[in-house]
Amino acid sequence: MKRMLPVVLCLAALPSLAAAKPSAKPFTVVEASIPEMQEALRTGRTTSHELVLQYLTRIATYEDKLHAAITVNPHALEEADALDRERKAGHVRGPLHGIPIALKDNIHTTNLPTTGGALAFEGMIPPYEATLTKHLRDAGAIILAKTQLTELANWVAGNPSMPNNYNALNGFGFNPYDPRRDPREATADGRPALNTGGSSSGAGTAANFWAANVGTETSGSILSPSNANMLAAVKPTVGRISRYGVIPITADQDTPGPMAKSVTDAAILLGILEGDPDPNDPATTRCTPPPNHDYTPFLKRDGLRGARIGIPRAFYYEKLTLPGEEKPRGGLNADQAKVMSDAIAILKEQGAIVVDPADIPSITDKDPKNNYLLWGVCSSMEEVKERKCSIDLAYGIERDFNHWLASLGDKAPVKTLTALREWNTAHQKLGAIKYGQSLLDISDAMDLELFRTRYESDRANDLRLAATHGLDEVMNAQHLDAVLFPGSFGASIAARPGYPTVIVPFATVPNTPTPAFPESFHANPVPFGISFTALACSEPTLLRLAYAFEQSTHRRVAPAGVP
């Protein structure tokens, strides 16, 4: 019923389209940027009502193909009308006034359910809004929908893992660049043939269901779907945007961030989401905001000139054999390597100083105890006992998820992580935990006092290997402005210390999974971007670099399957 709502709204509002001036070329939301929308609104070429109506029409047309939205706002047209009246009266709140935006469905909204995609939270209306939701509303944005996501941000099932963009409430999300199901027998469970990325969804933004969306990331969940859906995005420094009112995994790594069709749109959204320091999230004092929270002055066409960009060849570009192992890991295939070679050539053409190689010391270290790639994320109690992985995520969700549940008061459908696991087990026949809940199980075993010392030790090792002996060391030694990663490949190492990344659409490569598709299935290519990563609070620099690269390439193309 939720996805039928836009159809009713669209039919009821069609007369407003007939009222438009026949001599004026109709404004279309398809591939329109936020500045273009604002200009059309300013000149009277369109209204916020008409923007919402066009988006609702596209949702009604293509949603059954993509599953990009879990909930659509039934009052979006009314909110648009109110904002149109404000504009007519001379009150424009800023660059998002009257612009439809979508939120990942783990971000609190008090007028729409917030579910995390979990069956236990179906229909839950939280008792308070997320800080970032309030920032958006105050800025005049219209929260048009809540997006598809991997259930509870992909910290539910570990072995087998939950496929990207699946949740018990809405099934699988699909990629608009090839919105077909995977035909291979080994993976014939309804999942998409073209990976959507996860756990956030970028499908709706790529398909022009809304102007942009807000995702969240613990380790790759903004960068991965942005890469897979040819979007520009900012995975901010942890603390740059408040996490208050966002269903957590761990406060050590969680952050919301903007996902959009251009670096400019992402920069505009970042400034609105950031706001002033939030007393409900002490980490929001970590970075100093730019004047007026405006990141657009950093968007310079010649922003790459003189910038020092490091190329972490080992593992991220070329295969690497780790200490104690016989077979190499990592590296790019030939098509990906060609894309990155082209990207590096463009950096040089634009005046960047490319430091190649600029290998990350903890990636190439011959001592197993000092090698980041030999230090994983614990996903079972057996791995915990081996002490070769970090319990940060498992410990963090036991601590932070229970705290979040307590903040819901009597609105909480379950009161503890233990109660959620029990509810899931009792409701398996209704579709809960199709892929199990091994990650929730290990998390619930993390007694906060018993594992405190282990957690503190593991957290310190995360920071040592990812930052001190990792990104910090190479960036300081080579005096780098940023490190260039293929696609979203650098997400994990940047996530541990909470460092920022900006990703830019750039190319496509063949979709050639293992095992291969049947010969009769002709797969569409996979989007493949590039990402700039640097140390904490470096978003202004990263946006400058990403914008200059984007403006010198303009390689993003709209998905042909949803015209």
Notes on the structure:
Mean pLDDT is about 95; it is low at about 1-25. This protein is of the alpha/beta class and about 575 residues long. α6 links the parallel β2 and β3 (about 140-145). It has helices spanning about 5-15, 15-20, 35-40, 50-65, 75-90, 130-140, 205, 225-230, 265-275, 315, 335-350, 360-365, 380-385, 390-405, 415-425, 440-445, 450-480, 490-495, 540-555; strands at about 70, 100-105, 140-145, 165, 170, 210-215, 230-235, 255-260, 310, 355, 375, 390, 480-485, 500-510, 525-535. The longest helix has 27 residues, at about 450-480.
CATH fold category name of the largest domain = Amidase signature (AS) enzymes
Shape: globular
Query: CATH homologous superfamily name of the largest domain?
Result: Amidase signature (AS) domain
Which sequence of strands runs across the widest sheet? Answer: 1-3-2-6-8-7-14-15-13-9-10
The name of the CATH architecture of the largest domain is Alpha-Beta Complex
Number of DSSP-assigned strands = 15
Determine the oligomeric state from the structure. single chain
Specify the structural class.
alpha/beta
The number of distinct helices, counting runs of at least 4 residues, comes to 19
Counting structural domains, the number is 2
Q: Approximately what portion of the residues adopt beta-strand conformation?
A: 5-15%
Termini gap: 25 Å
